[in-house]
User: What shape does this take?
Amino acid sequence: MKPPAHIVISAGAALLVGQGFQSTGAGWACFFSGVFIDIDHLFDYLLRSPHRKLSVRDFFHPDQWGPDGKLYLIFHGWEYLPLLLLASLIPGITEIAWGIFIGVFIHLILDHIHNNGHPLTYFVIYRWKSAFHFHRLFNLPLKGQDE
Ligand SMILES: [Zn+2]
Assistant: This one.
């Protein structure tokens, strides 16, 4: 899913979370986690891009980033959610942890629905077992390859 959609949906979710928990911090945590989880795309881009300079046009075509066709997405992982639930048990950060949990949960659901990936693509373990190959994760051929 594209960033503007994540921004709008995360903002709406953040308002509800902030109201629900009566916590501005929880609302902001939901918004920032729902939007900035995608910062890992930037890490992947800088790591995989052969020319290593920013190009907005290239950035939105990860299937063309690098010759090895790998995509790590280190922050996109269903495995992190149980850890956030555990963090919510820590006094003093309960609402913030719930805000992050909800922001990440909504983000992953939206990416799963919109990005045409394998059903397990947003599990870090699945990506690792797939050697982080973009074409295996998203059922798309790499540019210039027959797979
Ligand atoms: Zn994402």
